[in-house]
């Protein structure tokens, strides 16, 4: 790790607490639309469906519109709540609008970034929709920590494709051996970076089993202090 000069972070689920912020957004939406749905129960159903659709999106098996609509459609079907396509589109638009009105961060985010910022150049690589990710970074005051922001729309490729990592390194004027990727997705962030030739750290707060035993894992962001 002595060669590392550039640290690349994923955003959602790694620094920005998507689950908590999404639950608050849905709570506001259901109240506004007078839906008798428990937002916490809904988010518990929605989260794994959302993750599954994001994996399809990352593999270019679905487009952005399918992701936007079908993750909600499947979640409402799973809780057996009748809903029209028009209502799904309304909720989807409100969700994007309300998601960034709350900007809770993963525990240890600021402490960790403050520790790293003086000795490393920090960057973001995200597959999230660019206009939403920019607002998240600004409203959460995370943007001040990062020199470059790479999103999949600008790069033309999504993680785990090697081209997005190449784009990010070129933007940061960094080399592979000087760079490390930190993220919560074993496939998109960690294996994507490793297959490209970068080092990587798997942020695994749930301590899920990983078949790749050689991969460096952390359960808390502050554990990066022991690595970097």
Automatic annotation (TrEMBL):
GO terms for molecular function: 5'-nucleotidase activity. Pfam families: HAD_2 (PF13419). Keywords: Hydrolase. Gene3D superfamilies: HAD superfamily/HAD-like, Putative phosphatase, domain 2. It comes from the Bacteria. The keyword Zinc does not apply. This is Putative hydrolase of the HAD superfamily. It comes from Flavobacterium terrigena.
